[in-house]
Structure formats: structure tokens, C-alpha cells
Write a structure and sequence with these properties.
Helix content: 25-40%
Largest sheet: 6 strands, parallel
CATH architecture of the largest domain: 3-Layer(aba) Sandwich
Distance between the termini: 55 Å
CATH class of the largest domain: Alpha Beta
Number of domains: 2
Number of helices: 7
């Protein structure tokens, strides 16, 4: 697999070293030649000096044969521009952009450009520790249409069948009990404190807390 990485900071250099050590073909682009020192003397990939959205430079880096492109510079605008050039000009399907502004991250995610927002990622995981029971967005597909949300069930769900989750209109993906994740088996029951992962249309993410606040009325 050939991967083009734009940005050789801490993230880009770590990606480059890991991918190269796994025997992948790697090309790293950065404006500063000194940045490549982070890759180490044993780095087996290629390095290119310049801006990552320069089409000629991307061609030199092998983007036409690339399987993936990672835009991880320290600038949101540069990363989005690189991602769009990779996707729209060269037709690369696996593209990811590092975005610092969470508002921009959500916008581009909905436009089908996968993003990684460090501040959002960290904030969500801290909230998970201080606000047990609240839903947390775990994953959104690259088209921005489907998301997976984590939710901790209240005591109202104790002894209810797992099928009741789907009766809320949500699709149950997995559940975690006492630190152990499982694929829910038909006929199994829920316990207070179970952590469930549900798949929903992205437009419904904000409704998960409401839908799982209480189990649906029991059927006869």
C-alpha cells in the first residue's frame, strides 16, 4: 500500500514511521526540510519539500498510485485543501484531514471528508468520565450519513430484553458489561450500567439520549 502523508510534525512523523515499519510505501511532504529529522535515520520512505496541495509535488510523491492520503499539517485550511485535491482531482477514496476547529470538522465530515479533530476527541473522552450516562459520538462514516453513538443505560433498563433497544428505532451494534464488549445475542437481557453502541442516521445523534432515557412500554 502506498500512502502520502502531508505534514511531518508529531502526528505525521509517527504515521510515517509506523507505516514504513509495516513495510508500506510512504511519501512524506513538509515545507521544512528539518521536519524530516523526526522520521529517524532508519525511515525507508521518501520525503518531499513543499506545500502539500501542489499538484506537481503530489505527483512526484506518487499520489496517482496512492491508496490513502493523510493531511496532518498544523493548518486547517491546508489540510482541507489537500484532502479536497486528493479526493476531487486524483480520486483517492481513503483521505483524512486533521482539523483543529471543531465547527469546521463537523462541516467537512458532513461533506464526506473524514476528519480528526483532536480537541473534540479529547473533550468527548473527558466528558465520558465525568458525565456517566450521557451519549457520546464514537464514529461517523465518510459520507456523514451514519454514526455510532455510545450510551450508558440507566437502572430502568435492568432485566429488559436487548430487543427493546431496537424498538426505540436505534440499531444495536454492541454492548459492554464490566469492561467486556460482546455482540448481543437474541434473548439476552440488559443490566443497569451496560454500555451500548447504537447506529443511527447522523441527523438523529442528538436524539439518542431522549430515545434511551427509558425503555419502551413492555409488550404483551
Amino acid at each position: 500500500m502506498h500512502v502520502v502523508i502531508v505534514g511531518c510534525g508529531r502526528v505525521g512523523s509517527s504515521l510515517g514511521r509506523i507505516l514504513a515499519s509495516d513495510q508500506h510505501s510512504v511519501a512524506v511532504i513538509d515545507r521544512k526540510p528539518s521536519a524530516f529529522a523526526r522520521l529517524g535515520d532508519d525511515f525507508t520512505g521518501s520525503t518531499f519539500v513543499g506545500v502539500g496541495f501542489d499538484r506537481e509535488l503530489l505527483l512526484e510523491a506518487g499520489i496517482e498510485r496512492a491508496d490513502s492520503v493523510a493531511a496532518v499539517t498544523n493548518g486547517d485550511n491546508s489540510n482541507i485543501l489537500v484532502a479536497r485535491v486528493a479526493r476531487e482531482t486524483f480520486g483517492i477514496e481513503r483521505v483524512v484531514a486533521r482539523i483543529y476547529d471543531p465547527n469546521r470538522a463537523h462541516i467537512y465530515q458532513r461533506l464526506g471528508i473524514p476528519t480528526v479533530a483532536p480537541a473534540v476527541w479529547t473533550t468527548e473522552r473527558v466528558l465520558r468520565r465525568v458525565l456517566p450516562g450521557a451519549s457520546r459520538l464514537e464514529w461517523t462514516d465518510q459520507s456523514g450519513q451514519v454514526s455510532v453513538v455510545e450510551h450508558q443505560l440507566s437502572e430502568d433498563w435492568a432485566n429488559r430484553p436487548v430487543d427493546d433497544i431496537e424498538r426505540t428505532g436505534l440499531r444495536l451494534v454492541s454492548m459492554c458489561r464490566s469492561g467486556r464488549a460482546t455482540l448481543p445475542a437474541p434473548g439476552s437481557t440488559l443490566e443497569s450500567g451496560d454500555i451500548v453502541h447504537v447506529a443511527v442516521p447522523t441527523t438523529m445523534v442528538d436524539r439518542v439520549d431522549h430515545l434511551l432515557a427509558q425503555p419502551p412500554a413492555a409488550t404483551r
